[in-house]
């Protein structure tokens, strides 16, 4: 069990949730949500929604019907095990997700190439705090882009480099041609089923992002329909920005996000009732001085807490995130903002966290070094969530210890006691040494240098998974030429 | 009003608090607390405590009697206003407190001199998030140490450089000779009374740190008695480390700290019932690999949350802290750990925060740059604590805005709306710009460079307070030669 510390309840009361829900229903009934996909519109029409052009409006009856069939938790299956996602389980995580540019260890920014993405896969595979692997950079320039489908090769890379389950992105019109995106999504699902030889269970989890305000693109809808028809769960999320793609106020952002997410969730249940779906939001604040998103802002945390409160209210598994910052380097700002953003997810709690490590400059830059640093935040938050063990048994033992040490005595004895080891998180990255600061700094080096050493060790310790001949053959049908077995 | 979000309640239940209290009482009755001061022992004896040598033991009757007279809140008076400390008020803060070494803007560590301490006073005086000034470095090498009392000159410096109230430290046997420390503490209190011409109210707040485990030095006790006799409030704190000066477990640390703090609080009330006193703890974890304190550890936050829960239980104003880190530079680790440590204080909440900015390397190094960065954490936490405004009035307005924008519309209009400005914290230090990262980084520079610019601006904007001739004359009696008016 993982305690849900319900951090959000200190910010969003039951009354607040009910009010947010009421205004959400009015948005769904009076404004509606745009679905740019005939098949989706037909589904809504068939189930009695009010459909006018691309705009779908519905009331609480249809919402309740759909929510009734959303599973309270879900499991992703691979041949190596089951990954459970739901309120009673530790939040499951995905690392750095998709930025085109990386900050490299030589402190330069460059467009990421396939091998850089592979290096990230190795870090995610060897991480103790990242559960899912994924493509850390999409559509790198060195892929063979003359192919009609150069998305599938990227999908196959995840299966080649890690036995951890994969978190997927949607196929889109840039990386798939010559077939519908619905078919592309189905093809991906079937690849996983075949590779794992698991045909009737969820084997893949995919990110499906709405267009704020209140819309879904045909690309995302095609993917949702294809995946859901294949019985594969999706994560429906919004990624709005206050005063740009959402109202100026936080309440406005939350109401609009909620309406959008619920409309997507309803669609999944109308297509294939009982398909697992996650309620997700990484909607954020903006900075109107620069007209940019402000992912590291405290308002982003408040929006996330509201999303957690609403997801729990609807009893749908929740995704929040995100270990993100607007800083360009893994500096003080990056530490503060990443912690702010990841905190509600671990202490809130969320069931699923995308981008639990490795992101800089909003979502635009990936960084191995920051990945290593962010891993530490994940560990710290898990320690915090464990809380403090207060019990009578412990009390008696403590009293004996305090008596033995006595006033002005000390507690340092030969062996470090079990209680210490059980209750203390010991970091391997953050400095804990004290002394004359200048020579000490020369000894321990900059935190970025220390992170670089850990990267090296991790990449060196990495081992390519053992795959069967059948699995290798399956992947060889899709892998980039120089990646084939 | 400042909302108490009671963050700690998610970690420390009512049952936990009661259990912590019960074991605390057993420590106080069965083990006792050492008071190295005859006068203090006499006071305890007179009020029926069990005194054996330096060890004082007492039961709940005496504790309850003392707690009954502790004021629920307190006010520090200066001629310019009142600073209120208590649960209903915003936490009041003191900045960088006392490290002998600073990290300077040229990235070198050096022993701080008087002028460096003055520069810190200027930053604290011009800060929007620091309420009290203090000596950021004590007993700097360039003070005239041939004087019997070179503590008073340092006290006078605070009064010279800022009209904000002062947070004091105890006079000690290093910086005061030729008179008792009780007299030294009284002399300080009288200086404030005379300088402010306020004779019958609290004018000064002073840090009084116990010796863990379970003891008070004669130096601290002399100061407590002197200050309390002058009607001046004190902050009683512990600063223990798990498995070194406290038991290995967090519960053990909390029970021992609680017994120690309560014993100090009882003494203040027995001497002068009704004198304001704060319940304080900055006790922390340790790292047994290096046998150092681990101020940035998540366990430190849990210990702080327990202290908050207990302080509230006893209805005594609470001090926690601390914007501290074990990092040697204001880096990623510093950002994370400072936030971890300051969070329970703002969201918990504490009534008083010492070290709200500017500390590195546990408590050993001060940094102007980190002070500027930490100020931003204080602002972020205050914004977070404001929470999210959910109301019917706002709901109707939002609905109209969402209708106007419509699905796939946008919210960007001519003027940035009032709601945006009301609800968004805009940072002047953290980067919010986005774009091609390399040229952007060259444009904005490193966060430390940006902090240095702010330091310069702040020091330039600083103005020495206008003091009356009488006040100047009072200070001239104590100020170092080159600081006299």
UniProtKB/TrEMBL annotation, chains A, B:
One matching Pfam family: MTTB
GO molecular function list: methyltransferase activity
Cleaved signal peptide residues: none
GO BP terms, alphabetized: methanogenesis; methylation
Keywords: Methyltransferase, Transferase
Family membership noted in the UniProt record: Belongs to the trimethylamine methyltransferase family.
Protein name, as recorded: Trimethylamine methyltransferase
Organism: Eubacterium maltosivorans
Lineage per the UniProt record: Bacteria, Bacillati, Bacillota, Clostridia, Eubacteriales
